[in-house]
User: Which sequence fits this backbone?
């Protein structure tokens, strides 16, 4: 149980294009999902909290107009990196809480490697 | 920024040895979680701790929630080559809702 998937697993795009990353909870409903960014040899940095049916909550320093988050259903959240630039190249990971488990554990997807040329 | 101090940053050990790593903070945490991440993958939950003083095992892994609620440790006994990876602690503070703060990670290398 508590399986989270991400798609795509890796993407290469040209500078200036937009990229959409999907995060799905496969065997549970997630009212809350989280988006993280991880640079090489560094820890996970929380970008935003995605709430089903409402606006995402962004961490300080994260541009909400650049990183668009949509949580349209209880099993799907999407992160769109708009007008991507090389400095946006990173490993993007989503996570979700399973409210049915009653705890605060977050279960992570396998990550999406974004490379902007 | 990071509010959890995780140490050591890296460890190089021989197969069969025991390993210990810990996280400390100046803040009180309500929940401590330990994750393992392998290259190109997302973190996988190892152990979750919810009560001060709690000691929990998962196979060869043991973790404890410090009595002051400001620290936690993870022990791995009789290490094997597949234990290689980066281990992260993560904590949830009372004032942060369900958001987690991550430690900087401990890179573990096990030599056969």
Assistant:
């Amino acid at each position: 149980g508590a399986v989270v998937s991400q798609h795509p697993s890796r993407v290469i795009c040209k500078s200036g294009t937009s990229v959409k990353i999907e995060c799905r909870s496969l065997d549970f409903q997630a009212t809350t999902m989280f988006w993280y960014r991880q640079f090489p040899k560094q820890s996970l940095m929380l970008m935003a909290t995605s709430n089903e049916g409402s606006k995402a909550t962004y961490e300080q320093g994260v541009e909400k107009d650049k990183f668009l988050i949509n949580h349209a259903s209880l099993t799907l959240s999407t992160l769109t990196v708009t007008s991507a630039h090389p400095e946006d190249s990173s490993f993007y990971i989503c996570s979700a809480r399973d409210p049915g488990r009653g705890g605060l554990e977050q279960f992570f997807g396998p990550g999406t490697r974004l490379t902007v040329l | 920024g990071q509010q959890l101090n995780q140490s050591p940053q890296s460890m190089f050990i021989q197969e069969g040895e025991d390993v210990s790593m810990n996280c400390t903070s100046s803040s009180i945490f309500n929940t401590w979680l330990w994750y393992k991440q392998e290259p190109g993958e997302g973190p996988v939950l190892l152990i979750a701790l919810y009560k001060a003083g709690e000691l929990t095992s998962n196979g060869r892994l043991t973790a404890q929630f410090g009595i002051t609620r400001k620290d936690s440790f993870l022990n791995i006994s009789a290490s094997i080559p597949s234990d290689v990876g980066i281990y992260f602690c993560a904590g949830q503070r009372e004032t942060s809702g369900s958001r987690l703060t991550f430690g900087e990670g401990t890179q573990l290398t096990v030599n056969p």
In short: The interface with chain A takes residues 2, 30-31, 33, 35, 40-45, 48, 50, 88, 90, 92, 97-100, 102-105 of chain B (CB under 8 Å). Chain B has a mean pLDDT of 94.
